[in-house]
């Protein structure tokens, strides 16, 4: 970079939560009309939400799922059991309201937005589709960088702006999801470099790979890793992708910048959280980890981020399905903090 050029991407100003307020909020939770500690991890969640919104109060009525969709050039090497055409087919299914993400969102009264950040096909104009396309899928990262540094910065900024826009329009909770055939391969590379962790430990079956497919996936990912020794977060993103991982990372930073909780889904969303937190460590305070995915490698990310997920249901779908299932817990924790009487008031007959 020359002395006069601007960096491609400036980390946004994100304030960590104030550790000084923790004891006060914990005392409020302990003083509620219940034995201290009797709500277990919901109390920890309420503390996190209270700290995020301080000096305001946590709210959970308006939750929005952002599903970032993008394609992966690595799919040409056979890393997935499925072709890239499934990405666009699933995007159309979200728009029709017929995917699992829609069912879980409807069951829990959560809005869904679908974002084309890099699907390798032209998509029709649709009222529920946000067009944020950076490029038509990534390049094949086994042979060349998945995207340019400018495109990586652009995808991050787009995700950031979308989350900020949703919060300015009234969202209290951002939940994250993704659709992108091949994205467990990119996520494995991102986690390998940013956790960091041995490459092989980060590779799992994704949407379902047989033994031959796993051998292909491992060989391809190993070839991609050998092509670049990048370890800086933005370089890792540009080298290995993907666009939806960048969009989710940007959205995490957007939610954190507005002091709103952001619910992280499974392996791929967690790879995005790892990226966001390596870019802006204070973003960690705003992340709620929804569930422990069955995908190999997820535990590595959770451990690297010192995260204890709320649920452990053996899910390995993505789309934000685990994040959607965690929204009622986040809402309940917020309500507990704002609505439950103190034991003192109960015993004094004030209720
Ligand atoms: C029909 C279908 C729906 C999905 N919804 C999410 N994924 C999940 O699988 C993909 C990642 O797995 P891999 O890296 O092995 O391709 C992502 O799109 C993820 O969201 C799906 C996968 C399929 C096949
Ligand atoms: O944990 C996930 O998000 C996941 C795992 C496998 C396939 N798709 C998504």
Automatic annotation (TrEMBL):
What does this chain do?
Catalyzes the synthesis of alpha-ribazole-5'-phosphate from nicotinate mononucleotide (NAMN) and 5,6-dimethylbenzimidazole (DMB).
Q: What name goes with this protein? A: Nicotinate-nucleotide--dimethylbenzimidazole phosphoribosyltransferase
Q: Which SUPFAM superfamilies match?
A: Nicotinate mononucleotide:5,6-dimethylbenzimidazole phosphoribosyltransferase (CobT) (SSF52733)
Q: What class of enzyme is it?
A: transferase
GO terms of molecular function:
nicotinate-nucleotide-dimethylbenzimidazole phosphoribosyltransferase activity
Q: Name one Pfam family in it.
A: DBI_PRT
UniProt keyword terms in alphabetical order:
Cobalamin biosynthesis, Glycosyltransferase, Transferase
Recorded catalytic activity of this chain's protein:
5,6-dimethylbenzimidazole + nicotinate beta-D-ribonucleotide = alpha-ribazole 5'-phosphate + nicotinate + H(+)
Q: Supply one GO BP term.
A: cobalamin biosynthetic process
Family matches, as InterPro entries: Nict_dMeBzImd_PRibTrfase (IPR003200), Nict_dMeBzImd_PRibTrfase_bact (IPR017846), Nict_dMeBzImd_PRibTrfase_N (IPR023195), Nict_dMeBzImd_PRibTrfase_sf (IPR036087)
Q: Which organism is it from?
A: Tardiphaga robiniae
> Superkingdom of this entry's organism?
Bacteria
Q: Which family does it belong to?
A: Belongs to the CobT family.
User: Where are the active-site residues found?
Assistant: 319
Q: Under which pathway is this protein filed?
A: Nucleoside biosynthesis; alpha-ribazole biosynthesis; alpha-ribazole from 5,6-dimethylbenzimidazole: step 1/2
Keyword Glycosyltransferase attached = yes
Q: E.C. number, please?
A: 2.4.2.21
